[in-house]
Design brief:
Blueprint (H helix, E strand, L loop, with lengths): L1 E2 L2 H12 L4 H7 L14 E2 H15 L4 H6 L10 H7 L3 H11 L9 E6 L2 E6 L6 H22 L6 E5 L8 H8 L2 E3 L5 E6 L12 H35 L6 H8 L3 H10 L4 H17 L6 H7 L5 H12 L3 H21 L2
Parallel strand pairs: 5-6
Antiparallel strand pairs: 1-2, 3-4, 4-7, 5-7
Helix pairs in contact: 1-2, 1-3, 2-3, 3-7, 5-9, 9-11, 9-12, 13-14
Length: about 350
């Protein structure tokens, strides 16, 4: 999974603001400087994970997530801070975070759930294990708590806060900051609060500024989504060409772009021409295997494999199943679904 390098910039700036040496932390991760990182070219989440762990080791502060979540560094990067400052109400602010989170992450880290009288903001960090997962859960929860207080004009009433990790040695810090009951080792990370604050209008809402900022955010999101569309366009070219496998030069010509630009677009989305060729081969294999009338030998030939044995080996590597086992399972599922359809009035 990839993530925006803005996360690295926020953490580095936080360290500098807290009086630590961000350069030492970056060097520990094999990064000489963040100046060479293009914000449009995302980095592996594993690099962000290493940087968090290096920061925890350098600062010797296990509660660094609290400092990072409340740091002014968060206001320096991305569209979210300014949108939140001008949001009309808390509900819209949370919607914006979830919508424009795609500019920073492959998937949203928060979700809003509502019941009669209460709301629950769940947090699912992009890093799900180890000290970095605790850091990220604290970071998001603290940052969201700041937003909830701002967006409710401090009228929010937090009933409970849940964390999936065990209680740390500094758990009193949790109680002091959230001013609510804290449950550790919980099934999910969540902040539970009074629902009515979601639609409470903010007197300082600046409609003109908010609309301008949101328009800019939408344009940025549209640009980012075009990178995703490029992946589908590449897949279409590859699938239409099977059993041949067009080179990256061939695909670039068909899409009216340069090989260098195509490689950069794919890298930004965490994939490559080679990976997409493999993925499309698997898709075509599964499509043909779903037809019981086509032999494995024929499918192997259609996909460009020199023998059924080579196809067998490749397919098992892709799915963990042999082609015949996958076909048997697929046909069994089709029969079960057909039987259910017949029984449905």
């Amino acid at each position: 999974m990839l993530t925006s390098p803005l996360h690295l910039r926020v953490l580095a700036t936080t360290l500098d603001m807290e009086g630590y040496a961000s350069k030492a932390v970056l060097n520990a991760c094999g990064i000489e400087s963040l100046e060479h990182f293009d914000d449009a070219d995302w980095v592996p989440v594993s690099l962000y994970d290493r940087m968090i762990q290096a920061a925890l080791a350098h600062t010797q502060s296990p509660a660094l997530g609290f400092a990072a979540g409340t740091s002014l560094a968060n206001q320096r990067y991305g569209v979210h801070p300014m949108l939140a400052m001008h949001m009309p109400n808390l509900r819209q602010g949370l919607k914006d975070i979830m919508r424009f989170g795609a500019l920073l992450l492959a998937r949203p880290e928060i979700a809003l759930h509502e019941t009669n009288g209460s709301a629950r903001l769940t947090i699912t960090p992009i890093i799900d294990r180890g000290p970095s997962a605790v850091f990220r859960a604290e970071f998001i929860a603290v940052a969201m708590m700041q937003m909830l207080r701002y967006g409710s004009a401090n009228s929010i009433k937090v009933a409970k806060v849940h964390f999936t990790h065990p209680a740390p040695s500094y758990q009193s810090r949790y109680c002091e900051y959230f001013d609510a009951g804290i449950d550790f080792n919980a099934p999910e990370n969540a902040i539970i609060f009074n629902r009515e604050v979601l639609d409470q209008p903010l007197p300082w809402h600046d409609r003109v500024s908010y609309l301008e900022l949101r328009t800019k955010a939408e344009l940025s999101l549209s640009t980012a989504q075009r990178h995703v569309d490029m992946i589908q366009r590449v897949k279409n070219v590859l699938i239409n060409a099977f059993p041949n496998a067009p080179t990256m030069d061939d695909v670039a010509v068909q899409l009216g772009t340069s090989k260098r630009s195509l490689r950069r677009h794919l890298a930004c989305r965490g994939t490559s021409h080679t990976e997409l060729v493999k993925e499309c081969r698997q898709l075509m294999a599964e499509h043909r295997l779903a037809n019981a009338g086509v032999s494995l030998k024929q499918i192997a030939g259609e996909l460009g494999f020199s023998s059924v044995t080579c196809f067998h080996r490749a397919f098992k590597c892709w799915t963990g199943m042999t082609p015949q086992a996958w076909r048997d399972q697929s046909l069994s599922s089709q029969k079960s679904q057909a039987a259910e359809d017949l029984q449905t009035p």
